[in-house]
Design goal:
The chain starts with 16 loop residues before the first strand and ends with a strand. The chain has ten helices and 19 strands. The protein is α+β, with helices and mostly antiparallel strands. The longest helix has 20 residues.
């Protein structure tokens, strides 16, 4: 179901109680909340954030009670999972993104020195020192909690392709922040402040990847002049995501460098109309409109010279029956959406769905263009970043048992 940010809570009293989300960072139904006592408020500060296309001054701490950190129990180790994300979705530049069912997992445990072990995607390419984004995320979480990061051992199992436009950087940021908050024993408010989102955007600079990485699903994000805010967009049932992932990497800095400094009214109106149709098509399950709703004038045409495979692979996906296809994030991956999946797709007749035909068409077009790569077939996920395991456990072994897909937390 869709969410909107609720109004800020009333001003706090000296010992005002407030609601906390049981999984501490993400929206859950009201019955899944527990009552805790807020700590004393922190001082309000101002920060300046650089946003693509201009500089906006925002209050990163809105009110004292909105940005206060609540003390919980520090942990010796924690294992977290964070999904891949596909940003922009055509016209929604720096504004909209979708979480995908491809996950990085990371275990962080207290140690006597900094260690980083990486397996899977990015092995041998991502840094294994404190410049790694997962370390920076943990360090940022401890800093926000008023502490220094202790020596830690990181064990990263990466399934999200590195530097391919599928949110690997945002996954690292969000994984580090989540692990850092759990290890330091701090909880942050969500309602009326989205503190976790503020912390992630302070590092990333825009919300289109970090918002779906945190919350799951399809997320809109913007800066309202005071802070970053997000809103969930309905995800139609049965969507399948087919992703062509080139062997070559794409650097966001390079992809942004080709974008123009100014736009015409015609280009602005073009994208405003498409993003409006995109949100409406998703919310109303009108998938027919996606073929136009994912068109773009702000970044895809400019990046087509950098990615010669983009246009032929998109056209091949559409001709094979995809609802839409677009450049994922800053590229170079191309994502197409199909539907008709019901239940477990491996039990559904192939002729009732077309993701395999679309995948084959995209692969052949890329090969004809001389662009080697691979295909992922997956689906959107409504689940965002979350804790898989922790030591000590979050469960009260005598009465309350918290379960997730990996078992008891």
């Amino acid at each position: 179901s869709s969410h909107i940010n609720p109004p800020p809570p009333p001003p706090p009293t000296s010992k005002q109680t407030r609601l906390h989300i049981m999984n501490r960072f993400f929206r859950l139904p009201r019955h899944a909340r527990t009552i805790t006592t807020a700590t004393s408020p922190r001082a309000v500060t101002r920060r300046t954030h650089t946003i693509f296309g201009g500089v906006a001054t925002q209050r990163s701490l809105l009110r004292q009670h909105q940005r206060s950190f609540a003390d919980a129990s520090p942990r010796e180790s924690v294992t977290v999972a964070v999904p891949a994300t596909s940003a922009n979705m055509g016209p929604g530049f720096d504004t909209i993104g979708m979480a995908l069912n491809v996950w990085n997992t990371m275990t962080v445990e207290r140690s006597d020195k900094l260690e980083i072990h990486v397996k899977g995607e990015g092995h041998g390419k991502v840094p294994v020192d404190d410049s790694n984004l997962v370390v920076f995320g943990v360090k940022t979480a401890f800093k926000h909690a008023g502490e220094e990061m202790p020596p830690l051992r990181f064990k990263c199992h990466n399934r999200i392709p590195f530097a391919r436009g599928l949110g690997s950087s945002s996954a690292g940021i969000v994984a580090g922040l989540l692990a850092g908050l759990v290890l330091s024993g701090k909880e942050v408010p969500v309602w009326g402040s989205e503190t976790f989102l503020q912390m992630a955007c302070e590092i990333e600079g825009h919300p289109d990847n970090v918002a779906p990485a945190i919350y799951g699903g399809i997320q809109l994000g913007m800066n309202n002049g005071e802070r970053w805010i997000s809103s969930r967009v309905q995800t139609p049932h049965g969507l399948q995501a087919i992703i062509f992932i080139p062997e070559s990497i794409g650097e966001t800095k390079v992809a942004r460098a080709v974008l123009p400094e100014t736009l015409t009214y015609k280009e602005a109106v073009y994208n405003i109309s498409r993003i409006s149709f995109l949100v409406n098509a998703l919310n109303t399950n009108n998938l027919y409109d996606l073929q136009w709703a994912t068109q773009d004038a702000l970044h895809q045409p400019q990046r087509s010279a950098q990615f010669s495979h983009m246009k032929p692979v998109i056209e091949a996906a559409m001709e094979a029956g995809a609802h839409c296809a677009y450049l994922s994030g800053a590229g170079p991956s191309i994502l197409a959406l199909t539907s008709s999946a019901a239940g477990d797709v491996f039990t559904q007749r192939q002729e009732e769905r077309n993701e395999q035909a679309v995948a084959d068409a995209m692969a052949k077009a890329a090969e004809a263009n001389g662009t080697p790569g691979r295909i992922f077939i997956t689906e959107p996920t409504q689940r965002g970043a979350h804790v898989l395991q922790a030591t000590p456990s979050f469960s009260d072994r005598g009465r309350i048992h918290l379960f997730r897909e990996a078992g008891e937390v």
